[in-house]
């Protein structure tokens, strides 16, 4: 059976050019970038070149502001826990939103156990925080504000530049989880007043277990991982040069093709929505639609159709979607994002699917998905009516 993949927010297939670049580097550039021998110098050159490519993609002032990590989770954990510990003498108050990824929420929970105080800003039905509530939440002892750039479940985007400007007037540093936004959103860490930013390579057709943390020059804290002096003593562990080179290639591709990709994703979303409406499927869109949300993600409430039944039936028919974040897909817990947007008792919490598109998806695949959804939702509704 041929399977159609619409879970690109969970992970993307590696781009053929990225695979070729990584394979070449694995074959020819096996040196340790910290070694002073020929192969080490060769690896160091590739590492430096890749860091420069990535630094330019977000308008970092210095290449050395990019610290390579194992991915978004490590980047988020490092930014949050290490900044908190480094700045606790100035205060123990942190601000975030209720719809952050678990890679942000769980380290914050751990910090609360250590005595830090966390304010969780609510969001409206579009998944957006109130700038006024952010201003009111800021205090003299607020040391960090961490607000995600684009949500991984519903695609809502925050007003990052406005948030950055507000935080810049305070004593706090500003961190944003840009894992889903990087590659489809315009990011300028200078204009947006971003101090720390997290990404992950496998969301942009790069390799897994790799990402970077942007750390504005002058922000000092101890490394999360203790060991060698790699990454200018900021992240211990031998750099995975082949994967980093591949990451840089993925960045080059998305930077070149970004506008074409965005137009493609929006066309796929419109095809999905139009097809479902034409077929008379009873559904609603969660959050914004074609109004500033991430272009590759759409969250749909299929009324009276449980998410788990939808997913199972679609998967058996060869259509792969998601009910929320892939990192929590194995959990029976309801979506904290939808609960924050609509209330924990809303039927949307248990009757929603997320479709997230990649460059490899086609209109024909979306049309096949519409046909499958028509069959599955009709069958599930009939089953409920017979009870």
TrEMBL record:
<keyword id="KW-0479">Metal-binding</keyword>
<keyword id="KW-0408">Iron</keyword>
<keyword id="KW-0808">Transferase</keyword>
<dbReference type="GO" id="GO:0031071">
    <property type="term" value="F:cysteine desulfurase activity"/>
</dbReference>
<comment type="similarity">
    <text>Belongs to the class-V pyridoxal-phosphate-dependent aminotransferase family. NifS/IscS subfamily.</text>
</comment>
<keyword id="KW-0411">Iron-sulfur</keyword>
<feature type="domain" description="Aminotransferase class V">
    <location>
        <begin position="4"/>
        <end position="368"/>
    </location>
</feature>
<dbReference type="InterPro" id="IPR015422">
    <property type="entry name" value="PyrdxlP-dep_Trfase_small"/>
</dbReference>
<dbReference type="Pfam" id="PF00266">
    <property type="entry name" value="Aminotran_5"/>
</dbReference>
<keyword id="KW-0663">Pyridoxal phosphate</keyword>
<dbReference type="GO" id="GO:0046872">
    <property type="term" value="F:metal ion binding"/>
</dbReference>
<dbReference type="InterPro" id="IPR000192">
    <property type="entry name" value="Aminotrans_V_dom"/>
</dbReference>
<dbReference type="InterPro" id="IPR015424">
    <property type="entry name" value="PyrdxlP-dep_Trfase"/>
</dbReference>
<keyword id="KW-0456">Lyase</keyword>
<dbReference type="GO" id="GO:0051536">
    <property type="term" value="F:iron-sulfur cluster binding"/>
</dbReference>
<dbReference type="InterPro" id="IPR015421">
    <property type="entry name" value="PyrdxlP-dep_Trfase_major"/>
</dbReference>
<dbReference type="InterPro" id="IPR016454">
    <property type="entry name" value="Cysteine_dSase"/>
</dbReference>
<protein>
    <submittedName>
        <fullName>Selenocysteine lyase</fullName>
    </submittedName>
</protein>
<dbReference type="GO" id="GO:0016829">
    <property type="term" value="F:lyase activity"/>
</dbReference>
